[in-house]
Amino acid sequence: ILDFMFLAKLPVQSTTSLRHLKEAHQQFHDNKLVFVNLGICKNFCIPKLHAL
Questions:
Q1: What does the DSSP 8-state code read for residue 13?
Q2: CA 44, CA 9: separation in Å to the nearest integer?
Q3: pTM here?
Q4: pLDDT exceeding 90 applies to what percent of the chain?
Q5: Other beta carbons less than 10 A from residue 20's beta carbon
Q6: Cys-Cys link to 3, which of 13, 24, 26, 27 (CB 3.0-4.6 A)?
């Protein structure tokens, strides 16, 4: 999520930075599912996460 936040705060976005932003967003969601699938947590109910 830190990669996403860092990229989102760049002063200027380019096609390349937007592609990296999308990849960071997808990677975060893919990685969070590992915790759910392993039974470590039942869900990811993080306040304001929906804003991403």
A1: -
A2: 24
A3: 0.70
A4: 44
A5: 17
A6: 24
Q: Which residues are CB-contacts of 36 (< 8 A; sequence separation ≥ 6)?
A: 42, 43, 44
d(CA 3, CA 39): 25
Task: Return the residue matching tokens 């759910």.
Answer: 36
Q: Which helix (H) or strand (E) covers residue 6, if one does?
A: helix 2-8
Element (H, E) at 23: helix 15-37
Whole-angstrom distance, CA of residue 18 vs CA of residue 41: 31
3-28 confidence digits (pLDDT tens): 998 999 999 999 999 999 999 999 98
Per-residue pLDDT, 19: 98
For tokens 């991403």, name the residue. Answer: 52
